[in-house]
Amino acid sequence: MKEINAADFEQEVLMSEKAVVDFYSTECPPCEALAPKFEALAGIYGEQVKFIKIFRQQNRDLAEQLGVKSSPTLLFYHNGKQVGDRLTGGIKKSDIVANLNLLLPASEIQRFAERQKPILTSFDVAVLGGGPAGLTAALYLCQAKINTVLIDIALPGGQVATTHQVSNYPGFIEPQLGYMLSHQMSEQTKLCGTSYKVAVDVAKVDLLQKQIVIDEFETIQAKMIVIATGASPRLIGIPGENEFKGKGISYCATCDAKYFHEKEAVIIGGGNTAIEESEFISKFASKITIIHQFDKLTANKTAQDKAFANPKITFMLESEPRAIEKAGDRMRTTVENLKTGQRTIVESDGIFIFVGMSPNTGLFGKVLTYDPWGYINTDEDMQTNIEGIYAVGDVRSKKYRQITTAVADGTIAAIAITRKIDLTS
């Protein structure tokens, strides 16, 4: 692996047969998450592919020339031409390997795959999930001098990282940007000494054996596991939703509202998230239509009052979407009035769907017990029906799901685990 500057780019990259370039920045959590994967793969593929690092902040002109807009960004080159995917953000090892394989002859791919020998790492506690609940559990465990690893398929932060503003988290007078609150939580937990394995593929979880397999080659063995996998946006299940997901349909206002400057948006949902995010989207969009199945909104009164007073927002109550289509660059939502049965077409530049969440429990199978809605049952110490397995945050069966209740869950589980480990030590 070699670090270069812009002056060396032509010789080291464009004049080489095969190269992969990492544009990185300082104070960049995704860059820190990528670094050990990049270095490890350089040790495996380095005889065939040049692994190059470029400090983006000191090579801005080159980065702009190549269209590099975020850190980290990985670019793959074959005989001076970019090939494969341009990888950015929380980059997974499997995606890097897939693009490295594009640079190799078919006969060589298996040989390099065999070099990635399975490894076993051991910890006292593995925290699976890096939202507020998982970060808090890992923080308390780390401060108790318990050897802890935090594992996440994305970067730490959870849903909070994609929330525009958080106005009700104790200790902050002014509303906090969601991604900054997540970042501060994550940095606090990392600085304590928690091991991080993030932006990884979780291939298998064996709760009975307390093993987690990541990136298909590393098995993490733990004495106890904290499940903090959270929940994901619920789909509405109508024709067109899967087809246009990410191509006109979004589930994240923070991610996509900025692309709606002077455009029209449809919002499906009437709860807190839908109504609060509509206020944020209205800072960009020229018109918003909210579609809600009931005759009244279910959001809190403050959010409702703001939405009703916003001249950009109109409402279609007692209505449900039936299908989504695309006509050129415009989205067309077929909406049925539940009282009259009449159907109308609502055109917009994009659609945001906020109709609740579903627990992320697909990795765990039937060994756990769940409530009727699929959330994990626990006792008051956050322990599940399996000894040594805990569940915290939005994945757990409970009445209220807020950041504050998530961090409370993480705190309780960590204290219970600490006492149990102390008794057995």
Structure description:
This protein has 425 residues and is of the alpha/beta class. The protein folds into 3 domains: 2-113, Glutaredoxin; 119-232 and 357-424, FAD/NAD(P)-binding domain, CATH 3.50.50.60; 249-353, 3-Layer(bba) Sandwich (FAD/NAD(P)-binding domain), CATH 3.50.50.60. It is built from 11 helices and 24 strands. The protein has helices spanning 9-14, 29-45, 60-65, 93-101, 106-113, 132-143, 178-192, 253-256, 272-281, 301-309, 403-424, and strands at residues 2-4, 18-24, 50-55, 73-78, 81-88, 119-128, 148-152, 165-166, 176-177, 195-198, 202-206, 211-214, 218-227, 231-233, 249-250, 264-268, 287-291, 313-316, 319-327, 330-337, 343-348, 350-353, 357-359, 389-391. The strands form 6 sheets. Strands 6, 7, 10, 11, 12, 13 and 24 form a 7-stranded mixed sheet that branches. Strand 16 (264-268), helix 9 (272-281) and strand 17 (287-291) form a beta-alpha-beta unit. It is globular, with a radius of gyration of 24 Å. It starts with a strand and ends with a helix.
Q: What secondary-structure arrangement, pairings included, does this model have?
A:
Elements: E1 2-4, H1 9-14, E2 18-24, H2 29-45, E3 50-55, H3 60-65, E4 73-78, E5 81-88, H4 93-101, H5 106-113, E6 119-128, H6 132-143, E7 148-152, E8 165-166, E9 176-177, H7 178-192, E10 195-198, E11 202-206, E12 211-214, E13 218-227, E14 231-233, E15 249-250, H8 253-256, E16 264-268, H9 272-281, E17 287-291, H10 301-309, E18 313-316, E19 319-327, E20 330-337, E21 343-348, E22 350-353, E23 357-359, E24 389-391, H11 403-424
Parallel strand pairs: 1-3, 2-3, 6-7, 6-13, 7-10, 13-24, 15-22, 16-17, 16-22, 17-18
Antiparallel strand pairs: 2-4, 4-5, 8-9, 11-12, 12-13, 14-23, 19-20, 20-21
